[in-house]
């Protein structure tokens, strides 16, 4: 049986039925690692600002906070410290959730960027107060769009993971 790259509900149901072998769990882990490597190095997910700029530091701080809060919330949904299958559940749910979330959010990014690049560049060079403030922290409207996508992807991933983990726990309780 193959892993569910696009169907997070099916993965949650398998976890709820305790239907995943260690080999399949390893496949989910490997898929998760490869997906982020491919997405990062392909240029589909782009850096929003130059490294060590205020904008990149703000993005990094937001992502750290979102990940800490997100993992904590997913752990709570898994039953908290008494959960014996948290890492297995998290890894196996993370793959289809992250694949579909990346496709939706970064797909929207590229549609907006391609469709409105001239307008976004014009806004960046408009001299408006907002454009000047963005420039002061080392970014522009294209960078802001990328930052919103980076942060938005993580928020969406953890939102979905919390709800799917609750589904898994519910399925386990009902047998």
Structure in words:
By secondary structure, the protein is mostly helical. The chain has one domain. Helix content is 77%, strand content 0%. It contains 6 helices and no strands. The radius of gyration is 19 Å and the shape is elongated. The model has no long low-confidence stretch (mean pLDDT 89).
Short description:
This protein has helices spanning about 10-15, 20-40, 55-75, 85-125, 130-135, 140-175. The chain is mainly alpha-helical and about 180 residues long.
Jot down its keywords.
single chain; about 180 residues; mainly alpha; about 75% helix; elongated
Mean pLDDT: 89
By DSSP (H or I, 4+ residues per run), the number of helices equals 6
Q: In what range is the share of β-strand residues?
A: under 5%
Estimate the global geometry from the Cα principal axes: elongated
Question: How widely separated are the two ends?
Answer: 22 Å
Number of strands: 0
Label the structural class: mainly alpha
What is the strand and helix layout of this fold?
Elements: H1 8-16, H2 22-41, H3 54-77, H4 86-124, H5 129-136, H6 141-174
Helix pairs in contact: 1-4, 1-6, 2-4, 3-6, 4-6
């Amino acid at each position: 049986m193959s892993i569910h790259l696009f169907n997070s509900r099916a993965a949650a149901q398998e976890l709820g039925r305790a239907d995943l072998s260690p080999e399949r769990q390893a496949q989910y882990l490997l898929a998760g690692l490869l997906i982020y490597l491919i997405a990062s190095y392909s240029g589909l997910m782009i850096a929003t600002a130059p490294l060590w700029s205020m904008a990149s530091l703000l993005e990094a701080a937001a992502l750290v906070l979102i990940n800490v809060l997100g993992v904590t919330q997913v752990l709570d949904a898994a039953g908290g410290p008494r959960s014996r299958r948290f890492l297995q559940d998290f890894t196996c749910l993370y793959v289809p959730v992250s694949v579909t979330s990346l496709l939706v959010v970064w797909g929207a990014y590229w549609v907006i960027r391609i469709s409105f690049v001239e307008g976004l560049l014009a806004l960046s060079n408009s001299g408006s107060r907002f454009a000047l403030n963005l420039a002061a922290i080392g970014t522009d409207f294209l960078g802001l769009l990328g930052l919103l996508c980076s942060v938005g992807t993580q928020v969406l991933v953890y939102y979905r993971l919390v709800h799917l983990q609750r589904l898994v726990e519910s399925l386990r309780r009902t047998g």
